[in-house]
Amino acid sequence: MGKNDISAALSSLTPRQREILDFIRDWIEQFGYAPSVRDIGRHFGIRSPNGVRGHLKALEAKGVIERDPRRSRALRLTPAARGRVSRSGKGFTLPLVGRIAAGQLHEAIENAETFDFQSLFSSKSADHFVLRVHGDSMIEAQIADGDYVIVRRQETATPGSIVVALTDENEATLKYWYPTKRGAKLVPANKRMAPIFVKNAKVLGVVVGVVRKLA
Fold first, then answer.
1. Are strands 202-211 and 162-166 parallel, antiparallel or unpaired?
2. Taking the model in full, what pTM does it have?
3. CA–CA separation, 127 and 81 (whole Å)
4. Which CA distances in Å does 10 have to 3, 35, 58, 64, 65?
5. N or C, which terminus of the chain has less Cβ within 10 Å?
6. Which of 119, 175, 181, 213 is catalytic?
7. Does domain 3-81 bear CATH number 1.10.40.30?
8. Domain limits of the chain?
9. Which is nearest to 13 in space by CA: 90, 24, 138, 41?
10. Exactly one of 137, 181, 185, 199 is catalytic; which is it?
């Protein structure tokens, strides 16, 4: 979808549709997964689930969300709604000034190329999302409070992967993933904390990168 198409899709939204889209976007940014029909209805005071589904159907028709009506929370924003198309059309890039060894740069900064961080993880940005870490449960995995984790959306994970998982209480948590016969064991990377045993844990994605701002 080009910039003109994105602008047209967003400008065609009614005030209520824009409010619902903003709510969905804010929810995903905060929790890392989509709100349910019930969550949306509760926030906007829409008592009928069909009323919420009508708004979602309209948003889908206008190209700002994608959904699977057969599954709960199977909802995601399209690039038009995420607003991730940059002015250059190249995503998030920074100068790549060379290789470093023993504290010296091998190339001059004046001759720098640019490095596209999106290409480091995947060519499909829609398959990834970012969460800001709160707490120190994964500190021994070098993931600290205030860091940002890049998560690849997927519903399965190999044992020992660091995942974003949805617990029985419908809360998202960042832990090592170990499936068991009775559910899953979610293990923190902090010796002071105990594992969490969950019967109906759901994998929302696997961590593929960590970003930390040092200053």
1. antiparallel
2. 0.53
3. 14
4. 11, 20, 12, 8, 11
5. C
6. 175
7. no
8. 3-81, 86-121, 125-211
9. 24
10. 137
What the block records as the tokens of 92 is: 């998030």
pLDDT tens for 45-76 read 998 989 999 999 999 988 888 887 666 667 88
User: Among residues 125, 3, 1, which one has the least CA distance to residue 63?
Assistant: 1
Residues 6+ apart with CB under 8 A from 195: 185, 186, 187, 188
Place of tokens 């449960």: 137
Give the CA dihedral 152, 17, 37, 42, nearest 10 degrees.
Answer: 120
Domain 125-211: CATH class, spelled out: mainly beta
Q: Which two tokens stand for residue 180?
A: 């068991």
Q: End-to-end alpha-carbon separation of the chain, Å?
A: 36
Helix boundaries (H) for the chain: 3-11, 15-31, 37-44, 49-61, 79-82, 117-121
Lowest mean pLDDT among 35-44, 105-114, 156-165: 105-114
- Taken in order 72, 125, 54, 46, is the CA torsion positive or negative? positive
Q: Residues 6 or more apart from 179 whose CB is under 8 A from it?
A: 159, 185
More confident residue, 113 or 26: 26
Residue 137 a catalytic site member: yes
Name the residue among 96, 108, 40 with its Cα closest to residue 72. Answer: 40
